[in-house]
Write a structure and sequence with these properties.
This protein folds into 2 domains: 30 residues; 121 residues, no CATH class. 46% of the residues lie in helices and 33% in strands. The strands form 2 sheets. The protein has a 5-stranded antiparallel sheet, covered by helices on one side. The chain has a 3-stranded antiparallel sheet with strand order 6-7-8, covered by helices on one side. It is elongated and about 110 Å long. The C terminus is likely disordered. InterPro entries: ComGF (IPR016977).
Length: 175
Amino acid sequence: MKQVSKLIKLKTNAFTLLEAVISLMITALVVNLLALILQTVQKADRLDHRRNEVAFAGQQFERFLKKQSDYTYTLPRFSTKSQAKFWRHYVDYRGVKMKQIFTLKWKNRSIVVSPGYMPLVTKVKKARFQTDDRFIRINLEETNGRQSQLIFKLDQAPKEEKEHDKKASTEKVQG
C-alpha cells in the first residue's frame, strides 16, 4: 500500500511538472505571437500613413468648402502656379452674410489656407496649383517621393461677379 501511495505521489508530481512546462510553452508562444502582431500593425501603419494623410486633407478641405457656404468659386485671374485664390460666400454664426477671399499656397514645406493657421498638408517638397472657372487642381510631390493630385470642384461664379471682375480689369487697363 505504501508503494502504491508513493507511485501516486510521483505521478501527481510529474503531472504537475508536465503541466507547468506546457503552460510556460503556451505562454511563451502567445507572447511571441502578440509581439509579432504588434510589429506588423506598426509597420503597416507607417507604410499607409502618408497616403491617408493626403486623402484626409482633401476630405477636410472639401468639407471646409461646403460647410455653411452658399457658394464658393475660383478666381483664376488672380491665381498663379504657387497659389490658388477663391471666394467663399457664407453665413456666419450670427446669421450675417459674409464674403471672403481665401488663398491656398505652398509655404514652408506645407500647403496652407490663409487666412488661417492650420496646414492642409505637411511634408510637401513641391506643389503646383492650376485654377480654372470651376476647379482647383493641386499637384503635390511629397518629401518621400510620392506624387498626388488633389482636385476640388467649386461652384461657377455668379454673373454679377463676372461682370464686376470685367469692369475692374478694364478700369485698371484704362487708368
